[in-house]
Amino acid sequence: MFFHVLTLFPDMIMDGLNTSILGKAMERGCIRAEAVNIRDYTLDKHLKVDDYTYGGGAGMLMQAQPVYDCTMAVLDSIAKRAADEIIDDTTDDTTDDTTDNKENVLKDEIKDFCINSMDAKKTRVIYVTPQGRVFNQKTAQELAKEEDLIFLCGHYEGIDERVLEEVVTDYISIGDYVLTGGELPAMVMIDAIARLVPGVLNNDESAQTESFGNGLLEYPQYSRPRIWHDKEVPPVLLSGDHKKVEEWRLEQSLIRTKERRPDLYEKWRESHL
Ligand code: ADE
After folding, report:
1. Is pTM, for the whole model, over 0.85?
2. Best probe residue, ligand 1, of 9, 12, 62, 128 (max atoms within 8 Å of C-beta)
3. What is the CATH number of the domain that holds 229?
4. Which domain holds residue 264?
């Protein structure tokens, strides 16, 4: 999985993603991430990327041109990489000097063909916006199946509608509140998606059984010591009876979900009872 984040604040993205579990997953090559600076694509000689909104109103708007060119450059790089992978898979490199040149010309032709026939637009371009559908675990699972994801982060008052119409495939919000930009929401979504990619977490099971995996909140968990602040670990967890432990955990999940998230509890009841 390769995350491409189009942003005016690339350091914010890379500093955030390079740390902790995601940073380690990147070192191991399970996931890749790049932050592409939208400002690098402006044709304005002062490197301006925003302007006043037509019709008046407070604040500035990100302009269509740099956002469009930046998105196209990233889509192009994705198509080229995919074509390279096809070439690597279908040709062997046991050429000698005489066949070398002919082979390279052929490879370039195949590559151009792949790039042109490949629908680079297939790559999902997510505009991170409070005006989108609200992100949840199901969305994370759906997006984790993609090979590449592009996140477009807005700033100021947003982005010129015309370029959004041309490049965006998904409008996604992380909740009904407004942040100063799309970087934090993009990182939130990348974190939730990346941890579902095989190999990112040490224990594949932990992405399966936790909160929302089965539509319920996760049961309470305990570690050593057995008694802490006079509070004892529930004895069933020490019983060694796996069936009983499972039953207790489901019961606790239901109690917790009913109490903290009655909306989720009702959904679970409708589909299970
Ligand atoms: N940009 C600003 N606020 C946002 C939110 N809640 N979700 C996604 N993108 C945003």
Report:
1. yes
2. 128
3. 1.10.1270.20
4. 210-271
